[in-house]
Design a protein that fits this description.
This protein is of the alpha/beta class. It has 12 helices and 12 strands. It folds into 2 domains: 208 residues, Isopropylmalate Dehydrogenase, CATH 3.40.718.10; 138 residues, Isopropylmalate Dehydrogenase. The strands form 2 sheets. A 10-stranded mixed β-sheet has the order 2-1-3-12-11-4-5-10-8-9, with helices on both faces. The chain has a two-stranded antiparallel sheet with strand order 6-7. The two termini are 19 Å apart. The structure holds nicotinamide-adenine-dinucleotide (NAD), 3-isopropylmalic acid and magnesium ion. The site of magnesium ion (MG) has 3 residues, from helix 9.
């Protein structure tokens, strides 16, 4: 097969991890006889510097006409004081909205050899396999008004948490469809004891549940969910939640797998190309030092192969290779506690590449 992939390296460690992920794609291409064509475009702070726009039109056009998009990360201290529309993060929010990527899948599992190294007890994390389904184009990130204002002569600011029925229906339905082919359980996470938007969310989740007799639905308040994720993550199969709750819970959940540098994601729409992106950010503290863990981005490529190209075997070959690389003992710095030696970003990828073969399946 021949596929065109738009690369959006972005800022900080973004370019480093995207480069590593394309090496993995190239190896898959060789082993399985596919051709991956890349086109690279600017997003985030890099795009602000070049085009005074965190999402130039040319970038969006390239993305629209590609088969899939691979994003590194955006943002960094350099742009933190820029006005809202020129912030790197705005570029990411805009592209998610433009491409209607309402569904962000953030799977959380643990590689075999990391079970005993987790900061959480082995018996709590062993065999973890849960999926966070994060709503990605609504809620506080996009609600209007979102602005500074004057309240009683005082400086104030407002952000708006609003959801339409259709927005809730489609993401909750997606969660149920995924649960049907997984463990058959949906946990809808909200703050219905306080927020009206959460009460609508809960009501609609109950309605959607009627369409899926083989899937059980439970509700959990988000503060409790944050605690339960660490106390007993095995109770969860699919968690579905609004944009900001999903953002926070997924960073927390990454520590069940061992590091923020391990968690991949797929941002999907009803039709058209999706963005495959690690859940982590641009990590300015380690950028340019060869310290970044490339595995979240490499696993995002595995999600791309599975969801965008229906290349199940190829996707599994990558996940198997990551498992074997970690089994062989290599660790990037984020995975090292104590005095074990860490390998570089490139060395980690080299080890993954070593284990990628068609015959692994
Ligand atoms: N999707 C994205 O583009 C995205 C996501 C989150 C944050 N950001 C942006 O990134 C910038 C930094 O934010 P932050 O520091 O809060 O979050 P971050 O995710 O960039 O980093 C948090 C911590 O995790 C570490 N880390 C992250 N990814 C890693 C990796 N692959 N390997 C090893 N360690 C890794 C970092 O070194 C840092 O200590 C901000 O500008 C923020 O807006 C972007
Ligand atoms: C950079 C930021 C806008 C983004 C988000 O909050 O969605 C990031 O944290 C993520 O998780 O992808
Ligand atoms: Mg985040």
């Amino acid at each position: 097969m021949e596929k065109t992939i738009t690369l959006l390296p972005g800022d900080g460690i973004g370019p480093e991890v995207v480069t590593e992920a394309t090496r993995v794609l190239d190896k898959i291409g060789i082993e399985f006889g596919h051709k991956f064509n890349y086109q690279t475009a600017a997003i985030g702070g890099t795009a602000v510097d070049q085009f005074e726009d965190p999402l130039p039109k040319e970038t969006l056009d390239l993305c629209r006409e590609s088969d899939a998009i691979l994003l590194g990360a955006v943002g960094g201290p350099k742009w933190d004081s820029y006005p809202a529309h020129l912030r790197p993060e705005k570029g990411l929010l805009r592209i998610r909205k433009e491409l209607q990527l309402f569904s962000n899948l953030r799977p959380v599992s643990i590689y075999n050899s990391l079970v005993s190294e987790s900061t959480i007890k082995e018996e709590v994390v062993r065999g973890i396999d849960l999926l966070i389904v994060r709503e990605l184009t609504g809620g506080l990130y996009f609600g209007e008004p979102s602005e500074r204002l004057d309240v009683d002569g005082e400086e104030a600011a407002v952000d708006t948490l609003s959801y339409k029925r259709s927005e809730i229906e489609r993401i909750v339905r997606m969660a149920f469809e995924l649960a049907e082919v997984r463990g058959g359980k949906v946990m809808s996470v909200d703050k219905a004891n306080v927020l009206e938007s959460s009460r609508l969310w809960r009501q609609i989740a109950n309605e959607i549940a009627e369409e899926f007799p083989n899937v059980t639905l439970e509700h959990m308040l988000v503060d409790n969910a944050a605690m339960q994720l660490i106390r007993n993550p095995r109770q969860f199969d699919v968690l579905v939640t609004e944009n900001l709750f999903g953002d926070i819970l997924s960073d927390e959940a990454s520590m069940i797998s061992g590091s923020l540098g391990l968690l991949p994601s797929a941002s999907l729409s009803a039709e058209g190309p999706g963005i495959y992106e690690p859940i982590h950010g641009s990590a300015p503290d380690i950028a340019g030092k060869g310290l970044a863990n490339p595995l979240a981005t490499i696993a995002s490529v595995a999600m791309m192969l599975k969801y965008a190209f229906k290349m199940e075997l190829e996707s599994e070959a990558i996940m198997d290779a990551i498992n074997q690389a970690l089994d062989s003992g290599v660790r990037t710095a984020d995975l090292v506690y104590g005095n074990q030696e860490a390998v570089s970003t490139t060395e980690m990828t080299d080890t993954v590449l070593h284990y990628i073969t068609k015959s692994t399946k």
